[in-house]
Amino acid sequence: MGADEFEPEWLIKNERYEMIHQMMERHEEAHQGNWQEFMRQSAQDWRQYPQLTRNELSSITCPALFIAGEHDDFATEEQLLELCSWVQDSRYLIALGCSHRPHMLREKPILINDSILSFLNKHAIR
């Protein structure tokens, strides 16, 4: 069921709710109708996810690739640059024209998948 199937027309057109509808639509697409459960699980993960210190980040020794979209409000290029300065042998990719989910169908999933595969090929475990 899409967002417009259970929301009144006046609410859909109200700009205050634009972000809510965008999130509902994107998560509907990504999680095949079970976006509410995904969000519950994500919230639980965020509460449990360790907040690593600079020293802990600096102790990471495996290669790392950080990815964000050009218009990602949650992970900016400046933040990725800083993160890369702490994690040795790390790289970052900014997907031009993309938002927070550059791997999704509406954005650039082929670019993201190809970039991840290329990174893994260069850093294969031997």
What is this structure's SSE topology?
Blueprint: H1 9-13, H2 18-31, H3 35-48, H4 54-58, E1 64-69, H5 77-86, E2 90-95, H6 109-122
Parallel strand pairs: 1-2
Give a nutshell description of this structure.
The chain has 6 helices and 2 strands, in the order H-H-H-H-E-H-E-H. It has about 130 residues and is mainly alpha-helical.
What does this structure look like?
This protein is mainly alpha-helical and 126 residues long. The protein is built from six helices and two strands, in the order H-H-H-H-E-H-E-H. Strands 1-2 form a two-stranded parallel ribbon. The longest helix is centred in the N-terminal third of the chain and has 14 residues, at 18-31.
Main beta-sheet annotation: 2 strands, parallel
Structural class: mainly alpha
Strand content: 5-15%
Oligomer: single chain
Put simply, the count of helices is 6
Can you tell me the overall shape? globular
The residue-averaged pLDDT reads 79
Q: Give me the strand/helix succession.
A: HHHHEHEH
Query: Biggest sheet, strands in spatial order?
Result: 1-2
**Rg for CA atoms:** 18 Å
Q: Find the count of extended strands (DSSP E, 2+ residues).
A: 2
Catalogue the unreliable spans: 1-5
Cα end-to-end separation: 47 Å
